[in-house]
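User: Hello! I'm new to structural biology and keep hearing that structure can be predicted from sequence alone. Could you demonstrate with ABC transporter permease? Please show me the input and the output so I can see what each looks like.

Assistant: Of course. The first part below is the input, the amino acid sequence of ABC transporter permease. The second part is the output, the predicted structure written as tokens.
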Amino acid sequence: MLYNIFIDPFVQMVQMPDLLVQTLWEGLVSGVLYALIALGFVLIFKASGVFNFAQGIMVVFSALTLVGFYEKFSAAGFSGHAAAFVALILTAGVMFVLAMLVERVVLRPLVNQPDIILFMATFGITYVLIGLGEMVFGGDPKQMITSELFLPSGSVDVEMLGGLVSFQKIDIAAAIIASAMIVGLALFFQKTRIGRALRAVADSHKAALSVGISLNQIWVIVWFAAGLVALVTGIMWGARSDVSFALEIVALKALPVLVLGGLTSVPGAIVGGLIIGIGEKLGEFYWGPLLGGGIESWFAYAIALLFLLYRPQGLFGDKIIERI
């Protein structure tokens, strides 16, 4: 048993390096997408100090809205690509309207309230979006409009390390698009005036107000940015499977990512996403048969539990010191 757990998996990695590369690639793609989802949480937490539990359902709602608009415009006689891009623009508009409504209806009345009040408010937003999504779009899974958005299909097979490694083209596109968005958001935080204002708001609402920063505008911007992140995430994950409310469970994989990387750290979200993505794929492929499979469903949460016990601030989070 000890041999099977501690030695045999590494022997397999050495004997079949092509399978190792395949597993690492699949983990890398999942990790980048987890990191992208986590960035949506980080954006809102850095700007308002609120953990947005609704980020997962925002991924689902934005993807369902995109497909719903596409179906309407396609039925109205628009060509496939035209209908898809009109639907994409309108979906971005819906996420902007959602950001304005959240700021006006939820955040503005709760300024300077305890964090737990704001956190519970995001639960309310979650169930409002679930109910609205089911009422408008129904509960049946839908097919993501990948080809209409010029996303590639098929695979590229590469001979390497004595075997054949298959790279799905949609995975390559997802990794590139998600990586570009992560880099763009990181630069946005560090280099722009709005990014600096976001960090100031995160440190203290009252101090930000005292130097002329508008909380209302910042919150609309950051919720809209999180909505765009959710939209891109929904497209990528929907293209890999389908668009349904089950995507919310995938989106919540970002929670362990945040525990690993730290709630306020963009680099932490990236590193945490890669650790979770690659770790769960390696665990499922090499150790899954020993444990009956299903490692992907709990591996991330087990790692998060260990970090909560021994390093609760995460790899890149700030250590909180309270003076009493």
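User: So the tokens describe the shape?

Assistant: Right, they're a compact way of writing down the 3D structure. Reading them back into a model, for example: The two ends are 50 Å apart (CA to CA).
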